[in-house]
Amino acid sequence: MEKLKDFEKRLRESTEKSQNLKDYLGIIEFSKTSIETKELGADLIPRYFQFYTSHSNQAFDAYKDIIEAVDVNLTVRVQAIRKLPLFCKDAPELVSKIIDVLVQCLAIDQQEQHEAVHETFMSLFQQDTLSDLINKLPEPRKLDLLEALAEISPHTTTLIASEMLPPIFELLKKYMPARNTVEKSDSRYVECLLYVFHHMAHKVPEATNSLCGYKVVPTQPSDRIGDDFSKLYKESTERLINLEDLIKASVEQLVQEMSDHDKAYLLFDSMSGDDKAILYMKRQDTKTELRTCINILAMTEVLHAEVPSFIGDTNVVKLSWKEATKPLAYTRALLVLLVLQGMCELEDDQVQALVGSSGLKQAQDTLPESRIFLHENPKVPCLFWRIRESTLLKLVTSKSWKKFLGFIRDQLFHLICWAYAASDLVSATRIMRNWEVEYIPLCPWYLCSFCRPEYLGEDENPEKEDDENPEKGHYCYGNDIEDCLLYIKQHGIPREICKKFDCKDWQPPNADDPHMHTTKLKSVRKIESMEEALLLLPHFPIGADLVVFKELWTVGEEIYYGPGTNSRGFRSYHAVIVSSIEIYKGEVVAICKMSNGTKVCDEGYVRVSLATTYMVVGASPKKKEHVRATSKPMHLLSEFIIIDIDENEKEKEREREKETESEEENPEDNQKGNPEHNPKEKSEEMQYPDFGASKFHNSLNEHIMPDSDKSLGNVSGEEIKMVTEGLTSLSKFGEKGPQERMHEPVEIVERGKRPANEAGNDGGTKKARTESSGCAHGI
């Protein structure tokens, strides 16, 4: 990064850019080294490209690699796509390569990226007319461009449609020959242009008045509905009729070719391998051409009327080069495996039938090292596979946050794993930023009551009040870590005083903790990419959501891979904290802290496979609201969150002063005062601590909330005496001491309303929440 900045500085300050070729070549080379350099290179390469067009291919290839890199942030990729016309402006010979990049970008199902492609095409058309642009392209690229235009046309805006429709119609006329001419029609070009014309005209139908003579009621007086466009209508109709005659003749010829292919198939078994491949390809090409002709006839038929009906947003026409619709067929063996085991291996064509050609390509781009399995669950069927471990080795780190994350907590049957994960992230970060010297648990009960009070009692998943079993009644709810942390950023969070609590009581006693404002956060950052997030693990503990199958609760010390055979299927998402990335038994795993007690997994921590990858292929009506809709491959961990807090500079300075004083007092033996080297001093220090406010609170917490392996019998008499004195001193602040106040009646607020002492939550609008059935986000 420093090298790139040096190159850029010299280029920026140079008055004779041609003398700085080495700096520009340095930018091209160093842009390839990391995520950060790629993002900076996406800005610098096009900025100075105009001065170094003699190296246009080298610069553009590096820029193309940045756009195609899987680790580049989506925002950076979108901005890079929008800058592509800068290359075409100074090096017109690159237009073919630019079209290639834009077509590839359309293959990825991402709306923001598609919009950037639309804008880039419009920029290209502003530099050249559509006809001129196509003439500059070699024959294969012409078809690529027209197919790309056809694919984006349903998603264009009204403004773009009004600008694009005239040049599209003029180009269409070129391939719709008038009678008594020698103009030749190319059926694939015509299919593309007719498809674009229909979608554009659907958005701005009044524009067809002056183009084709259609009598469409205009929305603007300037559309001149009173003008006589009958000649235009007559010409358009003649071209349509002539085109239809040519296409119908082509259909007859193609049907005959299909018949010839079918006859040749009778000799298929006796053919050589090459002959079989040639025959198969010819037959497939003939079928595609037939689909093209059928589409053209369907689109021309509705254009004969004076007030035509454009196909618009309907799915009447499916473009011929797209995968043909076919029944999803399983062999009997696959069906038997699905019934007996709940999962089976799939061939590529079966995967494509489920997720489409773009979905199959995205799965293949992850570099699977295993076959793709279908986990057939009636509620949420998913595809699963494993990617190569070698691609994950760069994520392994020696850093572990376990000592910062404290002991394993237990949320019992409350559906608030998000609150436990968020509060533990804050606790760990406070140690990291020198606000605490040890782990101090913060209060999930408070977060449950105040983060989203409008959700209390509204979640469908918690078991409701039961007269025979009152403990089943729950008013807690599912939420996500990000929403919770945004609340803490604004309001803070008190320390925990009760490990067990009744979520039907909406007023925790520590809701007005006077020190709560000190726990507010500096920043909350959500990261979409697993790789980008886990590369930050050496610097921050990371919150995440873990997709839950029943195997999570039975995996023990082994690795959690997701569903196995006879699994009961997808449950929900469980909030966890990623502590470290390690290699366990030759596999890269994330060590994640959960909030379900020490009897779950490996004493409360779970080893999550990073190689397991999945795609959701459907959801039942009851489950679809709780499954995150995504068409791209996902890992078991997702929705990554990091936070930060301002550094406690005073505490850092105080620690440095103590270290300096200690060294000056004992220059010959710095170890003399170290309790680790002097057991007696260590014992005395533990027996007579500095009992300030913070340490008193810690000691008080220890006895109100003893760990599961502690008992009051292990507490020394001196410690009990100090706690008693502390309670006595606290009682001076009011008429009643804390022990008396614990039994005061709690004010009841109306269900659904915010507790009276809450000033308001500006954390955002109500978000879609994850389902919290069973163990996920619950147990």
UniProtKB/TrEMBL annotation:
Lipid metabolism is among the record's keywords: no
Signal peptide: none
Keywords: Apoptosis
Compositionally biased residues, Basic and acidic residues: 649-659, 669-684, 733-756
UniProt superkingdom: Eukaryota
Region of interest called Disordered, as start-end residue ranges on this chain: 648-684, 730-779
Pfam families assigned to the protein according to its UniProt record, in alphabetical order: API5 (PF05918)
Gene3D superfamilies: Cysteine proteinases
Family note: Belongs to the API5 family.
Name the UniProt record assigns to this protein: (thale cress) hypothetical protein
Species the sequence originates in: Arabidopsis thaliana
